Amino acid sequence: MGESEAMVTAGMILFVAAAVGGIAYMLISGIAAYKGTWRTWAGQRSVYQFGKQNYLGFFGLYLQPVIIVAVLLSLVSILGAEWVTDWVLVLTITPLFMVAFACCFRLPRIMLPAWYKDWLDRGADKDEVLKPEYSSPFSWLRKPRNVHR
After folding, report:
1. Is the dihedral of CA 116, 121, 124, 125 positive or negative?
2. What is the pLDDT of residues 31-47, one digit of tens each?
3. Taking the C-alpha atoms of 8, 93, 21 and 11 in order, what is their torsion angle to the nearest 10 degrees?
4. H/E/C letters for each residue in the chain?
5. From residue 97, how far is each of 13, 44, 124 by CA, in Å?
6. Model confidence pTM above 0.85
């Protein structure tokens, strides 16, 4: 293997590692936001927020179907399926991405978890979600599950 091939291989390994890390972070933060263990994002204003309330915490969760379908269709295309054309990719991924992009504006009530609906119904008090116990998407990893044992 030549020096340039080794550089390309190293670059590909770094790219894949960064992509997998980013996807894992989006999934963890999206699940934490949906479960309610990470809530501080709801009380903060974001540059990418165009509506009155912040829904961006759910973006990582709702972007996962886009990534999964894109990767699967790309793999099927690489393996030689001729039916996977540019139009198939666009027509399949666009509706899924529109759902994820809706997190910048407003999500339908049916797509919101119970804790977020209750919080909105109570008046969306920002002090309620800015508590330290809701400060990190990884807070559910630190919490002991059986504290009463």
Report:
1. negative
2. 888 988 888 888 887 77
3. 10
4. CCHHHHHHHHHHHHHHHHHHHHHHHHHHHHHHHHHCCCCHHHHCCCCCCCCCCCCHHHHHHHHHHHHHHHHHHHHHHHCCCCCCCHHHHHHHHHHHHHHHHHHHCCCCHHHCCHHHHHHHHCCCCHHHHCCHHHCCCCHHHHCCCCCCC
5. 27, 24, 27
6. no
